[in-house]
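does this look right to u?? iron/sulfur cluster version
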Amino acid sequence: MLHHRGVRAIDNQFERAIGLFACWKSDRFGGRYIGIARSDNFVPTANNRTLHKTEPAECGATDFGHQIRYSPRLPAARPFVRALRGCCFAWLWLAFLHAAIIARSMAAVESAVQKTGDIAASLLKWYDQYARALPWRAPPGSARTDPYRVWLSEIMLQQTTVSAVIPYFERFTARWPNVETLAVADDAELMAAWAGLGYYARARNLLACARAVAQQHGGQFPATESGLRALPGIGAYTAAAIAAIAFDERAVVVDANVERVVARLFAISTPLPAAKSEIHRFADRITPTKRPGDFAQAMMDLGATVCTVRKPACLACPSSELCRGHRLGIAESLPVKPVKAPKPHRTGTAYWIESNDHVWLVKRPAKGMLGGMRALPDDGWNARQDGDSVPPVAAEWRTLNSSVEHVFTHFSLSLKLAVTSSPVQPEGMMAGQWWPVNSLDSAGLPTLFKKAARLVSGQGRE
Ligand code: SF4
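got this back:
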């Protein structure tokens, strides 16, 4: 009767497992195999029982498994061998899994690199066809844009829509066609030209920057992101945008539009502002070395016209096949916005002092809200406190029934209007000037005080 040995590499007879653990099984006749039955596997059963004794005598190769199994001197080794066999299996499985994971992640990296390249290519192709024609832009693929125009537009576009900026941009470039002319502009004239665009600190920084470029850089904007960043009023985003658009430097340009597009392309669900660094990393990954300026503008255009805040037009998007947010059906919910704290509400009073068809206007302090702008005198309201309702001069005041409602970035304001035509002489009490009422449009009043002037005109001035 023959006994079959070695039909499987891993069978129930633990000596086979030990053989496998040794990675190479020697049979009693010196043959080597793993798990394949061969004719010399069929040996007399009796022999099998005494194999551990007979093999050395026959000078055959040592069957280590048999020796352990049948050795009367090593009975305690069995649990150890079993444990070893278990470890061996676990180790093999782990090695296999590890190799599979590495292979899979390599494939994912390959595919991601491929896809990020595809995103840039698809966007540039789309931009060549659908780029918005804007007064500060060169057509796609053409010569670089004048850095002065790029800089001016980027400063104006901060917190402001394209449609609001265009008329201001055209007026500014007609009046001050280059950085040298802007550098010698009269402060009050520039502030008046800026009136209505809001965020007046930008106008003050605009002048400071133009003067720095004219005086320290010979009228030429620095051509690098870091050089631009050192100028007054130029932050990280603006420096990157000018470097990419005007100088074709590979810079990672992330404004609110780009932030939205990137968050959706990569399905980034971390809430803002914590997501900003992650978004920047992904934006960096998809920014190409060729045509980085066009790419930045393509991303801006996509965000403004296709990947809009509400109802993104994914069917018209050149990157829809590569967009994770779209595939997962969560695009519209991205980026996740932080919960906004309610804005505080403030109250205050502005004072309309009129004499001989002129109204008294003051100039607000250079720093702080509406800094450096012409304005009506007020009672000291600001973002942190209500006004004290104390008029700037003693007179007979009449308070209008309606008030002006205005919303600033950080608070909302109800502004009452107190009017007097008493013969007061504010000259000695507060700095300012008499301004003809019928040419208030040219005073460059901020929107709040334009509203106030309209309210006074509408309700009669006595
Ligand atoms: Fe935005 Fe949709 Fe395009 Fe994704 S597919 S980038 S969500 S427009």
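The chain has three domains: 2-75, 147-333, 345-459. idk if thats expected tbh
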